[in-house]
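Async update (no meeting this week)

Hi team, since we skipped the sync, here's where things stand on the single-chain job. The sequence we agreed to prioritize is pasted below, unchanged from the tracker. I ran it this morning and attached the output directly underneath so nobody has to dig for it. Comments welcome in thread, and please keep replies under the output.
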Amino acid sequence: MSKTETPDLNIERDVGNFHYDTTYEFDAGVGLSEATIDYIADVKGEDEWVREFRKKALKVFNDKPLPTHWASRDLENIDYTKIRYYLSKGQRPSRSWDEVPDEIKETFERLGIPEKERAYLAGVEAQFDSEASYSNMKEELSKQGVIFVGSTEGLKEHPEIFRKWFGKVIPIGDNKFSALNSAVFSGGSFIYVPPGVKVKQPLQAYFRINAENFGQFERTLIIADEGAEITYMEGCTAPKFETSTLHSAVVELVALKGAKIQYITVQNWSENVFNLVTKRGLAMEGAEVKWIDCNIGSRLTMKYPGVIMRGEGARGEVLSIALAHDNQHQDTGAKMIHAASNTTSNIISKSISIGQGRATYRGVVAMPKHLKNCKNNTECDALLINTNSRTDTYPAITVRGNRNTVQHEASVSKVSAEQIFYMMQRGLSEGEAMSLSVNGFVNDLIREFPMEYSVELKRLIDLEMEGSVG
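Output:
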């Protein structure tokens, strides 16, 4: 393989690249206006304060400019007047798999959702376009007071818990796309874990975009009360259309005193998806928020999970893997805001750029001067497959005072033709050799995933390298 030659590494997304014709009972039409907001609020039967929250957010979205850094140039290709902002078959989330509508059931059975639930999950939610179609949790958790429902149900059935934190970790005006989500949000998960309850098996949500010219805007809120522990996993796919699809989620995590939240994402979006997501956690005294984030696919991903460490002894961590292929840009990173003394944060980012793919790390670490004994470690490692690949690192580290410590390490390496040739001489194909190199590069992070997800992630990387789906 020459230094300028690009191997055929493009994944054939047969696993997620399928589409079923679906008849929708509720369709807000195309375009975004106050009429769109009223339609969504009426269909969902929302309280007046939610409608006003949405309309306030719409104004912020219209007034707020696009991000100004160079990664945002692609955003100018999004035509908001052609997007459908709400599609639903009118279903309430079923508690029984047998009651899920047939075409939706076929979608999630093809993606293996029921098997995963039976095998190792404590509960699962499956969202199809704008609304959850299936939501179920093991009875023993319900008896312990754990709540796991969709955001629509959370707003209606648990307003005393939901409203207290809703929009508080990520305010409407945080950025243009958090405002868009706040205006048209639908779906997503609401989880509350009572004090001292440790959920031993993960809860999972699966988000599926089925429709063309569609925007999915789920809103997730997870609250772990004092001493509670929870692991939440999400998976995402969409079929490949010729037109652009928009995914703009907001995720808010609240870990109260001594609580632990681990949030795991494995996305495998098709190449027409603009994935513009805002995720942030709040860690109180002695609490821990950990993001494990894997980004494969999409046309453009802009995602920077963050942690605000508000209480002493709080800890924040982001472990991320991004893989960018031809015509893809993974603009990912992390934000760590130290707001109390004796807090610790850790960022480990690994990216792989293939062909003309582009991967960017964009990070923020902030420590005010009145704090002491705060620590941060940031590691950014990039792997380039060939000379056309591109990687960029933009760390913004602000440390004031002389009683805090920060360390930052960055490296860029390249898979050499000699290395691939060496492995091929020992019986491996070119794709297998490339896959072995890439998996070795990310293996220390993959070990942080639960067993089932680490196996799935390695399989996705193998498929990306080999250009085939088994």
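Quick observations from my side:
Residues 1-21 have pLDDT under 50 and may be disordered.
The first strand starts at residue 26 and ends at 27.
Reply here if anything looks off.
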